[in-house]
Amino acid sequence: MMRNFTLNGNEIPQNENVEYLGLPIGNSEFIWNFVQEKWKKVEKSFYSLYGLGCKPKAAPPGLVGFV
């Protein structure tokens, strides 16, 4: 049985997919999209390290990890 929940007079929408404490909970497509979005952000941050001389195969992985 589906029920509508309210909190302080505001109705809480029902969702099958949700992000809770920074982690995706839901179907596999929702989780896959979440991971892809986060990975794109990681790739962008690695590209921003190029200006510091941290290029692939040019700097030791320990240095890149430290920076």
Question: Keywords, please?
Answer:
about 70 residues, about 20% strand, alpha+beta, two-stranded antiparallel ribbon, two-stranded antiparallel sheet, 4 strands
pLDDT < 50 runs, ≥5 residues: none
Give the total of beta strands.
4
Can you tell me the overall shape?
elongated
Helix count? 2
Strand line-up across the major sheet:
1-2
Helix percent reads 40-55%
How would you sum up the major sheet? 2 strands, antiparallel
Question: Could you please describe the fold and organization of this structure?
Answer:
The chain has one domain. A two-stranded antiparallel sheet has the order 1-2. A two-stranded antiparallel sheet has the order 3-4. The longest helix is centred in the middle third of the chain and has 21 residues, at 28-48. The protein has two helices and four strands, in the order E-E-E-E-H-H. It is of the alpha+beta class and 67 residues long. It has helices at residues 28-48, 61-66; strands at 5-7, 10-12, 18-20, 23-25. It is elongated. The protein starts with a strand and ends with a helix.
In brief:
With 67 residues, the chain is an alpha+beta fold.
